[in-house]
Every structure is written in C-alpha cells, then in structure tokens.
Records
---
Amino acid sequence: MSEPLIAADRLSVHAGGVHILDRVSLAVRPREIVTLIGPNGSGKTTLLKAVLGLVRSEGTIRRRTGLKIGYVPQEFGRDPSLPMTVGGFLALFAPVRAREDALTRVGVAEARNRQLGALSGGELARVLLARAIAGRPDLLVLDEPMAGVDVAGEAALYHLIADIRDEFGCGVLLVSHDLHVVMAQADRVVCLNRHVCCEGDAHAVVRDPAFLELFGARAAGELALYAHHHDHAHTPSGKTVCHDG
C-alpha cells in the first residue's frame, strides 16, 4: 500500500467548550477517492479545514513533502455586479496554458470570456474545479462541490472527478451529501459525527450499525439496491449511457 498523501491522527477541534471534532484519524493515498458523509453539524467541513491548516486543531497532521493541494470550498460568494470574467478569475491563480488546459479538461473552455456572475450552478462548479486542478495537484480537496448543480450535472461532475483522479494519479478527499453518488464513486467512505463512526468501502459502511443509526435502514437498503443496479455511466453533459451485458 502506498504512503498517504496526507494523514491526520487523533485530530480534535474545540470551539466555545464544544467538541467539533473528537480524535479523528484520516488518511488519503494517491489515486484514492475518500468521501466524508454525516449529518449536518457532524464536522465534515471543519475536518477538511483542519487537514488544510485553515483552523486550529489538536493532534498530528502529516503531509507528503512538496504536496500540492487543489481546494474547492463549500461556499463561493460571487457578486453579479463585479466585472470579472472566467478567464480573468483564473488568471489570478494560474498561467495561460495551465488555465486553458484546465477549462478544456472540465468542459467549459467556451466560458472563458463570460462573466462569473452569469454562470449557472453547474458551470461555476466546473470553473472552480478548473481552478483547483490548474496546478496539477497531488490531492484534491472538495467540500460539497456540487452545490447548485442539478442531478444529471452532479452525476457527470462526480464522474469527471474520478476521471481527473485517473489522469493525474491524485488523491481526492471530498464531502458529499448525495449518498447515491458515494456508492458509485468512492473508494472509501468515512462516516463522521464529530468522531469517526465507521469507515470502509461503501457496501460495508451502509451495513454498519453506526451508519444505520445515523441514516436509517431504509437509506441503507436503497443504497445497496442502487449499487447493485448501477449499470450505466454519465457523459460530461450528463447523458446516461448503459453498459452492455
């Protein structure tokens, strides 16, 4: 097994005397998609920020030497009145060739001259992903990157993330509220509720008593059925393509 790109050991975060995270351990390796799930307030976003060093935490965080990280935050405020094009926005973070390649890779090269404030939710999600991959990161950290994206676009974007993982050989750590997508895409699922309740491959997690307590037997049954019948793929536009056989 390869060495982790990033590893947190017994990570804790406190605020106002409250345990936001309690001794959480987590690792992400190259070419691995690790998805964090959990109820609202379970500490998912705080955990991402802690491993990135954006919030103060207790415990140990080890990063591979020279690790390059691409990050898509949960919220990205944009002012429709601000005259900023997609190309101008990405120019703040990457040279011309890198940003053009990234926009082409995520399927929105034609949006380079459009205003950020005029983009749809799906287009903005792809632009933010382009910003994150422009430096060819070793690790992608994505905090609910599909906010404002419709169902078909969401599935296509998750497949795109998996394709980027395959192409770059990077690790992916993401938060998702869509458990069905978790079943289809994650190599490992970590169920969080301030501490790690359970973790493993998706099929094992949905049968874990801790998962059942948080999400219920009905959710587990639906997800198991979805995994069994998920015999199709999605093109970048969101079109469904069935597998043969």
---
Amino acid sequence: MKKVAIIMGSDSDLPVVQGAFLELQKFGVEYEAHIMSAHRTPNLAAEFSKNARANGFGAIICAAGMAAHLAGVIAAHTTLPVIGVPIKSTFDGLDSLLSTVMMPSGIPVATVAVNGAKNAAILAVEMLALSDDTLADKLMYEKRAMVDGVLKKEQKLQSELKTK
C-alpha cells in the first residue's frame, strides 16, 4: 500500500495536522510527517516532492498558514496528487485559503477547508482506495457508520419531541 506524506510549513501547524494523523491511523494508512517551508527551505521541499513517488508515497498533504505556497511548491515538483490544508493564522485563514486554492493552470492542488486536516486525510485515503479494495471497503464502512449515526440522532430527536 502507498503511504501519505504530510508536510507542515511550521511546527505551529501540528495541532491541526494531528487530525490527519488520527484519520490515517484509523484507516491503517502509513504516513510520514515533515516540516518544510516553501520560503525558508524551498530546495528541501522540491527535493522531497521530486522523490516522493519513488519513496512509496501515493498522495501528499500540505498544511500551511499565511502565504501558504507550500502545496503549490510541492505540486510543481511531483505528479502525485497534492492536497492543501490552509491553516488559520491571520485574516481568519482567508490568506492561506486563497494562497492554497489559487494555483496556476497545470499545477493542481486539491484544497480542503481551513484547518480541514481530517478531510485532507480522508481525501488522501479515497485517492489511495482507487487501487486498493481493502481501503475502499473501509471507506464504505465509515460512510455507513456516519449515516447510522445521523439516523440515531434523528430517532432520538423525534422521540424527545413526542414526549413533550
């Protein structure tokens, strides 16, 4: 099974990114986490992304705040899917959202919500599941569990409304 790389622009992104760690662990997907900066260590980021496929990765998650160019720099140097997680730092995260989502033609970055590391992990799992039936089955189970959870809440609400 391919693994997922999680790249943070700073260690201050770790509290948000931990949601991705937990989600990948839940699905049994191996991952590596690193700190690299699009601005402070651009050569390191480029070198990592150039070698990511050969190093067994199937998707890369990049989390960065402010002028969040990390996902774009990584995407420029790989053919693997890159998922950007804009981190709320200034301007309620709008700056990092726009920096992540506004990529030039030919350099796509899938972007999730501000601080949406958990969804980034699920999207990475969905990408890996395209060629892994076991992961696809785990995803289906999780979707069914979400439906069951909502139905139980609805049942509880209706029961409470009837007793009033």
---
Amino acid sequence: MAVAEAGISTLGVKLGYAPETSKGVKPSSFTWLERCNSIGGIELSTEQIDASALEDEISRYVQGRQDTGGEWTVTFNLTDEVVEQLESMITTYTSLDPGMRMWFEVWSPYLSKGFYVVAQPPKHIPMPEVGQNELQTVELSFTIEEYKGMDDAIEPVGK
C-alpha cells in the first residue's frame, strides 16, 4: 500500500507540560508553552553488548538498551509572557510531591499520536546570546528521565 501523504508540516506544533497526578501515569491534560521556536529531537542510539565466546573468531553482539543521551533542548522566543510561562512550569516542577514527575508532549495537528517525554526542566532560565539584528531566543536544557515515545495525542491548552 502506498503512502497517500508526502509528509506533514511543523506549522501548528505545540509543546505542553503536565505534572503527574498519579505516579507513573500519563496526565490527561497539558499546559501549552507558547512561542516555542524549536524542539530538539531525541535520538535513540542502541548500545551493543559483546556476546562473543572464546571460540568466536569474529566478535558477536546482542542488542542492548537504547540511550537518549540524557539532554533535550527547546528554544523559545523571549518575551515577558514567555518568561512567565517558563517560570510557572519551573515552579510547578519544583513543587511536585515526592515521587511525582513532569511530563512533556510534542503535539502536532496532523498526527493522531504525540511524542511524550518525562523530563526535569532547568532550575533557572538561562541568559541567551544576544546578537545584532536577531530574534531574541532562549534555549532551555531539560534532563530526560524517560522517553515514553508515541501515544494518543492530547492537545496542550493555554492557561
């Protein structure tokens, strides 16, 4: 069967966050972080486990776990409203009950599934680079706790 669509646009993609309300369970709603400029990808490199034995003249391997690299970067257009939203997200994270985690979703209006990541946001908003005649953006570095992959999409909404 041939694929009908050639591809999809990134127009309309949203990034949302939500604290867990039940330990380990995907939240049922997400808060939209507006003016997101770019969302870094998460690569999954597969580790190889050496399964060679003494009689093997050539090394043999079995598949090991997949590694995300541990860091996820997201860039935002810098405005006062965006700073308020980012500070609210950081405050929500720092006030989580012990054992609860923060979920993030990359949502597309063209897909029935979203991408889910459990991550720790930075503790502070970093100072961005400033250049001549450029858009002022800020890049946040999140620590990936667990890449959940794709699941049913939940459109993030503003506060």
---
Amino acid sequence: MLAAASRQALSDSRARLSELAGSLPEAAGIAGVSDGLFAVVRVLDEVGHLRRILADPTAPAEAKSELVDSLFGGRIDPLALQVLKDALARRWSGSRDLVDGIEVLAVQARFLVAEADGTLDAVEDELFRFSRIVAREPELRLALTNASVDADRKKALVEGLIGSRVQPATLSIILSLVTAPRGRTLEDGLAEYAALAAEIRQRSIATVTSAIPLDDERQERLAALLSRTLGRAVQVQVEVDPKVVGGLLVQIGDEVIDGSTLNRLREARRALAS
C-alpha cells in the first residue's frame, strides 16, 4: 500500500502518461515506454543507493534529470525517459514507493496500447484465467514462485504454457510478475493488474463464483444488474466451484455479496444454534 504522498504522485504521473498517449497519432507509439520503464525498474531493484537518491525529496529535480540522462539516455525509449523524469519530479514517500509507481506506469503504458488495438478486454480476461489456473495447480504455483528456480527457467515455463495462446501484453505482464515478484504473491500481482486493466476501461471487476457455468446471456444479465446497482460499469469474470452448492458468490474489490446456497445453510445453522 502506497503512502499518501506516493498515491498522489502516482495519480498525477498516471494522468500525465494518459495525456501523453492521447497526444500521439497512435497509442502504439508508447509501446516503448513500457519496455523502457520495466528496464528502469529492474535496475532500481538491484541498486539500492540509486533508488534512494532518485526518491530523495530534497534532491533537485534538475539533478535527478541529469542523473537519469547519464544512466538511461540512449538506452531506453525517449518517451520512457520523459515519463520517468516526470515521475521523479514528484514527491514520493520512499524509494520502494517510487519503484512500485514506475512499475505501475510501465503496466499502464502496455495496457493503453492494448486498449488502442482492441485487445484490452482479452488481456484482462487472460490475466484472470491465468490466476485461476495458478490457484488450482499448486505444483505450477510452486514452480513459478520458488525462489530457488532461476528466472530463465520460469520464463521458459510460462512461454511454453501460454506463450502462443495469449495476447503479447498478457504474456509480458505475467513474465514480469513471475520473474520479478518484488515482494508480492503472484496472485496479488495478477489481481492488481487485472484491476488496473479494468480501471483503464473505467469498469470494476466482479469475480463471480457459481456452482455451474454461466452462459454469455446470464453473464450479461448479471453484469447489467451489478452495473445498475453500483452505478458504474462492471465486468463479470466467472469461476466455477461446485462447493458453493447453488446461487452465486460475488466479490468486487473488498466487497463480498454472498448469495450462495452454502452460505444460506450456514446462516440457518447459526440461527438454530442461537
């Protein structure tokens, strides 16, 4: 969780990135921003004194700009360098917040390209589906999160599993989370960036657990109902789990709407026991 100052810095940096993308003839032009910022994140993760210097609120913005020019100028996309300098000119609460923020900007840039080419819906769905696969396959999760397995082996495993089956943006995000988890669980990272994709589409994600599969018509009706109830667009993602017995379990962010038969049975038992 980012501190208050860092949340404001990230919000302003993200708004500036969206403005930059909107000013280009084609949003695909910011594809290099994502690659460049991911490269910066990797460097800052490894070099602690550098990230502390760049996050120091007492250091002049001009000095930071000159430093990143000397380190990354000519090595990353010029637009990535521009976005990086804009972020560094803002006030961050700490060096880790700064690196986390730059990574979010890298992901946002990738998602803006996907939105422009019409694949963001697919990316969002693929991130969700991969998270479900990881949750169901403990051996796969262990292989992807085991610190003793080197990054190249994890990358080869992911590419072999999904490389030809998902959008390039999906593969890029998953590879980043697997090879550089940066202190978070794989599940949390996937959920965070699926939510970011939905936010860019100005929607909320409703994770719906049902005892049986829901066809497209039922999913559309449920999404419409939730959208009317919440007053904002809602994207429904369905997970089938026979253990809920019947009904639906809906989770939107931290809010849980439990209408499953299992939950009603639990409530009945509690009422009888009281």
